[in-house]
Amino acid sequence: MANCEISPISGFQSTNLNNRIDSFSRLGDRVLRTLGYPFINVEVHKDQLYENISIACEYFTKFAGYTKEYLIFDSAMYKRNYGIRLDELFTLQNSDTFKEQKDLRTRNPDFTKLVEDNTVYISTSGAPGSLFTGISSLSSALLSGIDAYDIFTPDFYTNIITEVPTISSIFKTKVQDKFTVEGSDNGNNGQFINSFDYDVMDYRKVVAMTDFEEGSSTGINTLFTIEQTMAQQTYFSYAMGNYGFDLVSWYAMKDWMETREKLLATRRSYTFDERTQIMRMYPQPNAGNSDIRFYGVIACYVERPIRDIIKELWVYQYTLALTKMVVANIRGKYGSVSLFGGGSVNATDLMTQGLAEKQALEEQLLTGAAPGQGDADPAMFFVG
What we know:
Number of domains: 3
Helix content: 25-40%
Structural class: alpha+beta
Strand order of the largest sheet: 1-11-8
Number of strands: 11
Oligomer: single chain
């Protein structure tokens, strides 16, 4: 830590869901204070401290730290013999800033939220649509103006500041120390675009894909399908007399249809690689006829952004354990040095504490009462 200023009590008033940990620096301060700073010197560099926080975040997001999301799948985006990147699909959401992106077959690169290079530009405040009314290249996309925390690609950003140079100051291009774009904890987390992690300056990654439901032929709210007919028959059976399907027959028919799907392979199967983010379907969409287009819903788990991960108590505890081990390794180099008063540097106890805490925390994350810190879905049935 650079100084020893006394912070106001409001800087420490914190709860689980209203957490004061808003940056690597603030979490690092908490770890150092736990180890005795500022009354005693803690022999650790800030880069080592931040590295430990990063390791804790990586470990936590391996087994926990994700949200369940539903993505809209468009078969026109699927590339034959390649698949589709789910993190790309997760980014292709329409907003006021990207109104021209309506037909995903002919994606306009100026208005896509797919990050294809290392630089993106984020607005820290809004700008009215009247600024762009007379500019043909911007008026349709920015009809309602720019909102705080909108994301822009380099080409579109250049176009904006070329036409309206007076608003160049509202854009940020790099990661800030604090976890809000303006560099301070201003309580505007609700304005963040959900799919973007503003700290790593990239889109959130999909952890796992759990289900795919094609929306072209199933569902009781779709006319002229077997499911809809069966549901209507069940309704009339109870509402207008004892005829038609009853509820037991409806479930028996649904079970038969699910068996039929498996035997005749009428339901698409899929694979997903979390490292490449590529999802592949079998049979592939657009096989033999590129004009056939369908939509579906993909259920998947997506990593939380770092601004949420560092607030987890487990991340703080794991960082503390790793830091104890780092300090013990450093102090171990001076084990034979005698201090004033005849004392000595004792690194063994600190190393033992760090190793024990690290092992206990890993056990808690993997096999505790709620594996994955409660982020995993509960078991729906048991066999035994």
